[in-house]
Amino acid sequence: MGFKMGIVGLPNVGKSTLFNALTRTAAAQAANFPFCTIEPNVGEVAVPDARLDRLAEIAKSKSIIPTRMTFVDIAGLVKGASKGEGLGNQFLANIREVDAIAHVLRCFEDGDVTHVEGRVDPVADAETIETELMLADLESIERRLQNIVRKVRGGDKEAVQQERLLNEARAVLEAGQPARTVDVADEDAKAWGMLQLLTSKPVLFVSNVAEDEASQGNAQSARVAEMAAAQGAASVVISAKIEEEISQLEPDEAEMFLEELGLAEAGLDRLIRAGYELLNLQTYFTAGPKEARAWTIPAGTRAPQAAGVIHGDFEKGFIRAETIGYEDYITLGGEQPCKDAGKMRAEGKTYVVKDGDVLHFLFNN
Ligand SMILES: Nc1ncnc2c1ncn2[C@@H]1O[C@H](COP(=O)(O)OP(=O)(O)OP(=O)(O)O)[C@@H](O)[C@H]1O
Ligand SMILES: [Mg+2]
């Protein structure tokens, strides 16, 4: 499957710089030039997880395979995008396809880097983007409502449900709030997701600060944090410029550089983890002499569907999952000691996998 985060923001705020650092490739062309990104760039990144290394050490695994997440570098959005300004609708379509949004806000002062509005004000910038996304949502809601009129009249159940949800979203948007503030009932969740409203996607605000502010942030990033908290959204402080430099260093050099900067870990690691949490994702592990590997599942996934992430056949022929809790695996020192201590459980089809579970699936071919 794969979970996708879209990197969104005004032109020239540092999206591609961040994307480059994330994917450690030069695939996205970063330059001090609005609209240098035209096609969305897609990159996969490893989700950092120290637990995987500890498991691999105990299981004496030959290789370590982290789980992955996808980032998409989307071109800058400007005021009027919902009406086709800038590169307009094309970008909105790119955003529609992602599971969550990393909204990059320029918090750094630099006279050499053009700001499309000619001033640094991340809170106002956030509103500009959000307004465009809300307008685009309202437009697509109107269109959809018109398209289903006949079906609704004919009493089509799905269409009636859609109409109700579209009207709820419209009411919230017309009151100036994003669609993610709608309280969606469980039985509506699937239909709601299919509406693919831009402002229904979870958002992580990314404050892009100057190089020497990476560890403490600045007054602007503090304002962003306040705004995010008020919306119940997450935020991280990062210096895309520094991250780009770090991504070009060897691991041990990078560690020294981080120490000099007063950073406990690379901002990218924090960003990736925050995205992972935002998407409500969890990790389970498989560990053996061949490999130790992390797998991603949405929180609440049952054992057969978790097995299905590895291979469809695992899900179809699922018998049971031999399960060891992560803490047990570490404290007792691996699979055999856990077995001996009665800490390996046989879990069936209804078992909800827990974050960190070390699993071994038994299945029929
Ligand atoms: N934290 C920072 N401090 C200083 N300069 C930065 C920082 N982050 C990015 N920049 C610089 O800002 C400029 C624009 O960056 P970038 O190309 O990544 O923007 P973008 O958001 O992808 O723009 P576009 O929407 O046009 O694709 C580059 O010159 C980059 O080096
Ligand atoms: Mg760019």
Produce the secondary structure layout:
Layout: E1 4-8, H1 15-23, E2 41-46, H2 50-59, E3 63-65, E4 68-73, H3 88-96, E5 100-106, H4 122-153, H5 157-174, H6 189-194, E6 203-208, H7 219-231, E7 234-238, H8 240-247, H9 251-261, H10 267-278, E8 281-287, E9 291-298, H11 303-310, H12 312-316, E10 318-324, H13 326-332, H14 335-340, E11 345-347, E12 358-363
Parallel strand pairs: 1-4, 1-5, 3-9, 5-6, 6-7
Antiparallel strand pairs: 2-4, 8-9, 10-11, 10-12
Magnesium ion binds near residues 15, 16, 36 and 37.
Could you please describe the fold and organization of this structure?
The protein has 365 residues and is of the alpha/beta class. The chain folds into 2 domains: 4-278, 3-Layer(aba) Sandwich (Rossmann fold); 300-363, Beta-grasp domain (Ubiquitin-like (UB roll), Roll). 42% of the residues lie in helices and 19% in strands. It is built from 14 helices and 12 strands. The protein has a 6-stranded mixed sheet, sandwiched between helices. A 3-stranded mixed sheet has the order 3-9-8, with helices on both faces. Helix 1 (15-23) packs parallel to helix 8 and helix 4 runs antiparallel to helix 5 (157-174). The two termini are 22 Å apart. The model is unreliable at 25-29 (pLDDT under 50).
The end-to-end distance, rounded to whole angstroms, is 22 Å
Indicate the mean pLDDT.
89
Tally of distinct domains: 2
Number of strand elements: 12
The oligomeric state is single chain
